[in-house]
């Protein structure tokens, strides 16, 4: 009877060890499958950005430059060319009490502000206009513009064969104290 009980305990121990090894193997395989899926998805997402033609990349960059350089030059034609008529440019402002509000500008107010002189008072050597295309997929693009006093995140769309800015979320650069 003791021998039978010993064999049962040994078999239970072996089964527990086997289950532990099997569980570890399944976990490793699941982890490797997950890593493989993430890599495949990231390559696919990267391929979407790379798939934009050179002509589209150039047109997207030129639209961003028309926007920022038009502002610095006080050139309303360049600004208007860059914007969709229904553009919304927004900024989240927070007061000293911590209360936030969303302010908005339209395409018309941007063009009128440019016509009034826009950023012409910004010295040429301070006119920062760094354009980075963040992503392009078919007729949609996301672009970052770093300017002298602000950073813009632009959403562009290809409308009637040309790239235009439809949304801007922006933030003022804080002066260093």
What attributes characterize this protein structure?
about 180 residues; alpha+beta; 6 strands; about 30% strand; elongated
Element layout with pairings:
Blueprint (H helix, E strand, L loop, with lengths): L1 H49 L3 H20 L2 H7 E12 L5 E7 H9 L13 E9 L2 E8 L2 E10 L2 E11 L5
Parallel strand pairs: 1-6
Antiparallel strand pairs: 1-2, 3-4, 4-5, 5-6
Helix pairs in contact: 2-3, 3-4
Report what the structure shows:
Helix 2 (54-73) packs antiparallel against helix 3 and helix 3 packs antiparallel against helix 4 (107-115). A hairpin with a 2-residue loop joins strand 4 (140-147) and strand 5. Strands 2-1-6-5-4-3 form a six-stranded mixed beta sheet. It contains four helices and six strands, in the order H-H-H-E-E-H-E-E-E-E. The protein has helices spanning 2-50, 54-73, 76-82, 107-115, and strands spanning 83-94, 100-106, 129-137, 140-147, 150-159, 162-172. The model has no long low-confidence stretch (mean pLDDT 85). It has two domains: 1-51; 54-172, Roll (Nuclear Transport Factor 2, Chain: A), CATH 3.10.450. With 177 residues, it is α+β, with helices and mostly antiparallel strands.
């Amino acid at each position: 009877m003791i021998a039978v009980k010993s064999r049962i305990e040994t078999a239970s121990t072996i089964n527990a060890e086997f289950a532990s090894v099997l569980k570890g193997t399944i976990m490793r395989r699941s982890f490797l499958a997950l890593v493989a899926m993430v890599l495949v998805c990231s390559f696919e997402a990267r391929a979407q950005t790379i798939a934009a033609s050179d002509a589209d990349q150039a047109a997207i960059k030129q639209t961003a430059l028309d926007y920022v350089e038009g502002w610095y030059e006080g050139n309303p034609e360049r600004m208007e060319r860059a914007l969709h008529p229904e553009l919304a440019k927004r900024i989240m402002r927070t007061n000293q009490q911590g209360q936030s509000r969303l302010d908005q500008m339209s395409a018309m107010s941007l063009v009128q502000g440019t016509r009034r002189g826009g950023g012409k008072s910004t010295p040429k050597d301070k006119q920062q206009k760094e354009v980075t295309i963040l992503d392009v997929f078919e007729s949609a693009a996301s672009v970052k513009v770093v300017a002298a006093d602000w950073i813009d995140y632009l959403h562009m769309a290809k409308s009637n064969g040309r790239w235009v800015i439809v949304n801007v979320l922006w933030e003022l650069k804080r002066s260093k104290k």
